Amino acid sequence: MRPWLIEKISIPTMPRLYLAILLSCLVLSCKTSIQKSEHVQFLYQSADLPKSTGVVTDLANLYTSSQTDEFRTLIQDFEKETSNEIALVTVTNIHPYEDLAIFTTDLANHWGVGKESSNNGLVFCIYPEKRKLWISTGFETEKILTD
User: Fold this and answer.
1) Which of 86, 93, 97, 113 could form a disulfide with 121 if both were Cys (CB 3.0 to 4.6 A apart)?
2) What confidence category does residue 118 fall into, taking pLDDT thresholds of 50, 70 and 90?
3) Gene3D superfamilies annotated for this entry (predicted)?
4) In which domain, by residue range, is 25 found?
């Protein structure tokens, strides 16, 4: 390194140089973490999640077959009008999960509710045994209806 370069860098510019290097490293690390987060990671194995039986999955047997058919028709008609996808699921347990919100979000991602390009899915998860309901929304749907 040439000695005259060191002389030209004044003390006040050294912190700026360090700051610029630090910011560059942060930007690169953020970009890397964003790229990694594009792949969905579930809290548990996807085998722990129930299988979908369509837009209405009544595992807790809360609804009669006519009610299930009515929900199915309403949801499918809504999807035709708006392109937003909705799933209604009732569960008897969420084992090995402890949090219904995380369970519902993992379920939505596993089932692929919502168009991938627009992320416009919505999952209603009803857990009657614990008297709980959670609504998980995709990012586009979240602008209209938040979690």
Assistant:
1) 113
2) confident
3) 3.10.310.50
4) 3-37
**Distance between CA atoms of residues 142 and 147, nearest Å:** 7
Helix, strand or coil, per DSSP, at residue 122? strand
Residue 106 amino acid letter: D
Residues 94 and 125 in one domain: yes
One-character DSSP codes across 32-59 = HHHHHHTS---SS-GGGSPPP-SSEEET
C-alpha to C-alpha distance for 77 and 143, rounded to whole angstroms: 21
Q: How far apart are CA 77 and CA 82, in angstroms?
A: 9
Predicted TM-score of the model (pTM):
0.67
Question: Same domain for 51 and 26?
Answer: no
More confident position, 66 or 32: 66
Decide if 127 contacts 133 (C-beta within 8 A): yes
Task: Tell me: do 29 and 56 sit in the same domain.
Answer: no
Residue 1: what pLDDT?
Answer: 46
- Cβ partners under 8 Å of residue 17, min gap 6: 9
